[in-house]
Amino acid sequence: MNVMERTNHNLRINADRLWASLLDMARIGGTAGGGSNRQALTEEDARGRLLFKQWCEASGCTVSVDKLGSMFARRDGLADLPPVLVGSHLDTQPTGGKFDGVLGVLAGLELIRTLNEAGLCTRRPIEIVNWTNEEGCRFAPAMLASAAFTGELSEQAVLDTRDAAGLRFGDELTRMGLDCSTPLGGRSIAAYVELHIEQGPILEAENLDVGFVTIGQGHRWYDILLNGFESHTGSTPMNHRRDALLGAAHLIEAVNVIGKNHAPEGVASVASMRVMPNSRNVIAGEVLLSIDVRHPVQARLDEMDRDVRAAYAACLKSAGLTGTIIDISNCPPVPFDSNVLDIIREEAGHLGLKGRDIVSGAGHDAFHLARIAPTAMIFTPCRDGISHNEAEDITQEWATNGANLLLRTVLRLANEI
Ligand SMILES: [Zn+2]
After folding, report:
1. Which of 333, 102, 109, 340 is closest to 212 using CA atoms?
2. Residue 297 and residue 301: Cα distance in Å, rounded?
3. CA distance between the termini of the chain
């Protein structure tokens, strides 16, 4: 085997093999609507993991599984140095698409298959990771396993997390029959690169091949409890009402305005609400709703926080309510590593790919990894920006471009840093 020559820019992944692997994985938990349902730690997830393990072992990798089920497939390097880590997640939403997460994992596998065929060895080891429970639809919050890998959550807290049916993460993991004997985290990672579909419409609209993700946007999540007074809709005069749902309506409108005032970078949403007693002829006595605001710049996110609190106070006043505002999550923006980004931009140039800097609107495991290792993400276009949907779609060319860029980037990182 030869160490990769830095000037060898001719190596390319096998586009048909990558595409076939993506479609093979999509069939596990395949849905009638053309998507995939492989929620974390389910039977379908177990089958997807087994296929991935078989593929990795057939490619000469050693597969280990950590205490929270995250899988690491390792291809040794010439030197016993910290590895370059690439990957994403194989779990999906209940009505998920074929490519969210899966592209990043299987492009990692494809780059190892490509290096094997070319007989090339790298200085550093390369590892492909499949993070457990990225989606968060079964066990909340999302990205539990990568958060614990980097020390942000404790192993025990994740094991004790329960799904909506009351089933415990740790018990469901045990039921999968994996050998989860590798200690969680606590080791050095030379760099982490995550390839992912954009899950937004920008790259396709601008006819670009790839996005260089410079920053993961920050977010603040709140639960708002509004308390009014239950009374008869027929006999309570309009000026005697304390209508929690009316207050909620004012607040929802105000949150939308906050998002528009901070657009295009900022977004603000109310996407869930519970009304009590939710009866057509009782004025709502209580409403619980969630607010989600996001921005890539901390100072703007702070402004949005102030705006949310002011809108909350205003809605209490306008509808004559009392209430409680609870901070659920407060994540600052995550800037990605400028050196890794420079390598990605340079290699995109060598490949003749058109790209631009882009912000990640969605959360990703890379946000956590950025705390412990030089980290960056590569985005590929996504048809009409549709994701978390069975209709999620990409072209083979988009997948190929992303995987080739990942290959070139990982070669540089594994040989040069
Ligand atoms: Zn994802």
Report:
1. 340
2. 6
3. 20
Backbone angles phi, psi at 361, to 5 degrees: -75, -40
102-118 helix and 15-27 helix, angle to the nearest 10 degrees: 140
Coil, strand, or helix at residue 409?
helix
Structure tokens belonging to residue 67: 């205490």
Confirm if 410 and 118 have CB atoms less than 8 A apart: no
Ligand 1 centroid vs 82 CA: distance in angstroms?
25
- In the reported structure, the alpha carbon of residue 236 is separated from the centroid of ligand 1 by a whole-number distance in angstroms of 49
Residue 394 CA to ligand 1 centre (angstroms)? 14
DSSP conformation class of 239: G
Helix H or strand E encompassing 258: helix 244-261
Q: How far is the CA of 41 from the centre of ligand 1 (A)?
A: 16
What is the Å distance from ligand 1's center to 93 Cα? 9
How far is it, in rounded angstroms, from Cα 279 to Cα 233?
A: 10
- As a whole number of angstroms, the distance between CA 375 and CA 266 comes to 23
Q: What is the DSSP string of 343-390?
A: HHHHHHHHHT--EEEEEE-S--HHHHHTTTS-EEEEEE--GGG--SST
Tell me the CA–centroid distance for residue 99 and ligand 1, in Å.
8
| Residue 275: exposure state from Cβ atoms within 10 A (0-12, 13-18, ≥19) | middle
Q: Residue 77: which residues within 8 A CB-CB, separation 6 or more?
A: 83, 121, 122, 123, 124, 125, 126, 414
Task: Write out the DSSP string of 34-61.
Answer: S-B---TTSHHHHHHHHHHHHHHHHTTP
pTM for the complete prediction? 0.89
335 φ/ψ angles, rounded to the nearest 5 degrees: -80, 135
Q: How far is the CA of 364 from the centre of ligand 1 (A)?
A: 6
Provide the 3-class DSSP secondary structure of residue 230: coil
Residue 8, pLDDT score: 61
DSSP labels, 106-145: HHHHHHHHHHHHHTEE-SS-EEEEE-TT-S-SSSSSTTHH
CA–CA gap between residue 92 and residue 27 (Å, rounded): 13
pLDDT tens digits, one per residue of 35-51: 999 999 999 999 999 99
- Considering only 112-116, 245-249, 300-304, 359-363, which range has the smallest mean pLDDT? 359-363
